[in-house]
Design a protein that fits this description.
Enolase-like, domain 1; five-stranded antiparallel beta sheet; Uridine Diphospho-n-acetylenolpyruvylglucosamine Reductase, domain 3; 26% strand; four-stranded antiparallel beta sheet; Uridine Diphospho-n-acetylenolpyruvylglucosamine Reductase, domain 2; 12 helices; alpha+beta
């Protein structure tokens, strides 16, 4: 016995939306299925009537520079993001994040759209995209819209996609410029727990010895991926030295909400790791920003 009645392979965005609307019972979109199918098998997701497969839709598999931004289709598998030089050139943090999701078999099928749509507060791809100031493009019966990635999230495992019935088309990222760079790091338990103890991504723009721009994302530090806006303001316009880093660490601990997880770590340990990762990621992004954009 399967956990669904109908499996539809959609050839286009319009067909996928029509299939969702015409389903006789609960329907879900599926691409890599590394989260959804497992949860259905384990009974952690309600049985669905229809699964709509979007992996064959051309636009959702597109990875290109479009209209002056980097566009990444929602069905692009993670291994492509790790391997393609275009992503390393403009979004190094995303390369590093996607390269640490699961093992090679998982990365061959798991998609960036699925990583985001699953709406976990510490999903590696989501954390990197937040630091890279990504926008999400959604398609619905009434048309398309683009919104900041942060607006997708409602809480742990909850996004606006299920409530709106929209399809995640892809992501729009600013192109990297000289003096700009990003980085990502995570800490995880070695015993096979897939979710990170803590992860952190940063994007910086250098102006001489000062931070002319900075974006930081961290998780899990609350019910949704956290853009550390107060910490960014603390760093803005400052040199990347120890006094600045100490103030940034204090600010981050003030706005993040770390909790104890019996399977992963205590809140106290996560607070310690936050300072370690903040220093590591900022130092790496700062160093990269002083060099040419990687090719």
């Amino acid at each position: 016995m399967t956990n669904w009645n109908c499996y539809y392979l959609a050839p286009s965005i319009e067909d996928a939306l029509q299939a969702l609307a015409k389903a006789k019972g609960p329907a879900r979109l599926v691409a890599g299925g590394t989260d959804l199918l497992l949860e259905l098998q384990q009974g952690r997701q309600a049985v669905v009537d229809t699964l709509v497969d979007v992996t064959q839709i051309p636009e959702l598999n597109t990875l290109e520079v479009r209209a002056g931004r980097l566009f990444i289709g929602a069905a692009v598998p993670l291994h492509r993001l790790v391997d393609v030089s275009l992503v390393r050139q403009h979004a190094q943090a995303l390369v590093e994040a996607c390269g640490q999701v699961g093992g090679p078999q998982v990365r061959n099928v798991a998609t960036l759209g699925g990583n985001v749509a699953h709406a976990l507060p510490a999903a590696d791809g989501s954390i990197a995209l937040h630091a890279l100031d990504a926008q999400a493009e959604l398609a619905g019966i009434n048309g398309r819209r683009r919104l900041p990635l942060t607006d997708l999230y409602l809480g742990p495992g909850r996004s606006i996609l299920a409530e709106s019935g929209e399809l995640l088309v892809g992501f729009w990222l600013p192109l990297g410029q000289p003096g700009q760079a990003s980085a990502f790091r995570r800490v995880m338990r070695p015993q096979g727990v897939a979710l990170p103890v803590l992860n952190l991504a940063a994007w910086v723009q250098r102006d001489g010895d000062r931070l002319a721009g900075v974006r930081i994302a961290v998780g899990p530090a609350g019910p949704k991926p956290l853009r550390a806006l107060q910490t960014e303001q603390t760093l803005l316009g400052q040199p990347l030295d120890e006094p600045t880093l100490a103030k940034a660490n204090e600010s981050l601990l003030g706005e993040a909400r770390f909790r104890t997880s019996p399977q992963r770590a205590t809140a106290e340990y996560r607070r310690h790791l936050a300072g370690v990762l903040l220093r590591q990621v900022l130092a790496l992004a700062w160093e990269r920003a002083g060099n040419e954009i990687p090719r």
